[in-house]
Amino acid sequence: MSEYKDIDQQALDLINGGIDAELSTTEQEKLARLLAESSEAREAHKELESFARIIDEIPDLDPPDYLHDSIQRQISLPAHSKAKADKLGLFESCLC
């Protein structure tokens, strides 16, 4: 994506929210005004919308079983390690 120097983060958030259909009515009105007033915003919107469309076309794939199992083994703590971590308070904020 190009870097848009004249578009602030709030404008980019509106553009992304519009593409993702996550805007309130008020925010949609702000986005419409932004796009009407700024050619750079329209360019960013067009580019991000195209990118989102490409991403949406990528099929969902499940990893092969061997890869899934390998990842699970690497991220799972053995029972004795979890108990030790609990004693140290490492899982206090976890909602597991």
Write the layout of secondary structure elements.
Layout: H1 9-19, H2 25-37, H3 39-57, H4 65-75, H5 79-88
Helix pairs in contact: 1-2, 1-3, 2-3
Write up this protein.
This protein has helices at residues 9-19, 25-37, 39-57, 65-75, 79-88. Helix content is 67%, strand content 0%. The protein is elongated and about 60 Å long. Helix 1 packs across helix 3 (39-57) and helix 2 crosses helix 3. By secondary structure, the protein is mainly α. It has a domain at 9-57. It has 5 helices and no strands. The model has no long low-confidence stretch (mean pLDDT 84).
Tally of alpha and pi helices: 5
Q: SS-based structural class?
A: mainly alpha
- Characterize the overall form: elongated
Q: Helicity, in percent?
A: 55-70%
**Amount of beta strand:** under 5%
Keywords:
96 residues, mainly alpha, 5 helices
Task: Explain briefly what this protein structure is.
With 96 residues, the chain is mainly α. 67% of the residues lie in helices and 0% in strands. The protein contains five helices and no strands.
